[in-house]
């Protein structure tokens, strides 16, 4: 369905609008199907939106959140997305936040754990929020990773896979568990949150290139759901 761009004056406006769209998606899902299931990225940009969403009125006992990807670290590690998501949704009483990793972050067991947990969820997410790195990775679909080609294969029936970024990012030098592209595209709403002109330029270059192995973020436009790009300076 293409890409829809939402430009905002600042991160506050971006966060407010994204939170409103996620809230509407949750309400519609609960009213229609009895629960809402979201896949949410880590990173600095989307967390103000998560906190704004958590402050809104909703039957949070009917909402399930799963990370779009996770670093293979113990859950109490500062680099854990799970820990940050739990903090962001601390006001959302009754919410369920699933983990893609085992308590100790062991990569092999975490990969099996993620596939097992995802199998218990509906086949289609109600909304997904993703971010993007300067190298055009999204979720943990890193260019150069040995597992990337399989993770981007739309015929891949697996919901999650281990990813070993190459090179490892110095700020987070860990293996990852990520949702595969085929799982990311099974959603009713897809949101990409980015800030700064440099990231906008990366996204434009990725979309123009069409080379998803070099620019994995371009692949998220291949699904049936429109990609809502939320950008602020």
Automatic annotation (TrEMBL):
The lineage of its organism: Bacteria, Pseudomonadati, Pseudomonadota, Gammaproteobacteria, Lysobacterales. It catalyses: 6-phospho-D-glucono-1,5-lactone + H2O = 6-phospho-D-gluconate + H(+). One of its GO terms (molecular function) is 6-phosphogluconolactonase activity. GO terms for biological process: carbohydrate metabolic process; pentose-phosphate shunt. The gene is pgl. It is an enzyme of class 3 (hydrolase). NCBIfam families: pgl (TIGR01198). Belongs to the glucosamine/galactosamine-6-phosphate isomerase family. 6-phosphogluconolactonase subfamily. It comes from Lysobacter dokdonensis DS-58. This is 6-phosphogluconolactonase. Its EC number is 3.1.1.31. CDD domains: 6PGL. Hydrolysis of 6-phosphogluconolactone to 6-phosphogluconate. Pathway: Carbohydrate degradation; pentose phosphate pathway; D-ribulose 5-phosphate from D-glucose 6-phosphate (oxidative stage): step 2/3. Signal peptide: none annotated. Residues 11-224 form the Glucosamine/galactosamine-6-phosphate isomerase domain. Keywords: Hydrolase.
């Amino acid at each position: 369905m293409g890409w829809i761009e939402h430009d905002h004056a600042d991160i506050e406006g971006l966060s407010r609008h994204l939170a409103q769209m996620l809230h509407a998606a949750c309400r519609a899902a609960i009213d229609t199907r009895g629960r809402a299931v979201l896949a949410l990225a880590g990173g600095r940009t989307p967390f103000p939106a998560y906190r704004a969403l958590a402050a809104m009125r909703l039957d949070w006992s009917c909402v399930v959140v799963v990370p779009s990807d996770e670093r293979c670290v113990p859950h109490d590690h500062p680099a854990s997305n799970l820990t940050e998501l739990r903090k962001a949704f601390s006001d959302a009483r009754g919410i369920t936040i699933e983990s893609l990793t085992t308590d100790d972050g062991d990569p092999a067991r975490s990969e099996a754990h993620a596939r097992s947990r995802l199998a218990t969820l509906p086949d289609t997410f109600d909304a997904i929020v993703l971010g993007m790195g300067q190298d055009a990775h999204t979720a943990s679909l890193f260019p150069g990773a040995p597992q990337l080609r399989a993770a981007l294969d739309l015929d891949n029936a697996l919901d999650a896979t281990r990813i070993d970024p190459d090179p490892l990012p110095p700020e987070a030098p860990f293996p990852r568990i990520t949702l595969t592209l085929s799982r990311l595209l099974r959603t009713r709403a897809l949101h990409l949150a980015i800030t700064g002109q440099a990231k906008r330029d990366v996204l434009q270059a990725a979309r123009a290139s069409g080379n998803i192995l070099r620019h994995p973020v371009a692949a998220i436009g291949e699904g049936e759901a429109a990609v809502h790009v939320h950008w602020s300076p």
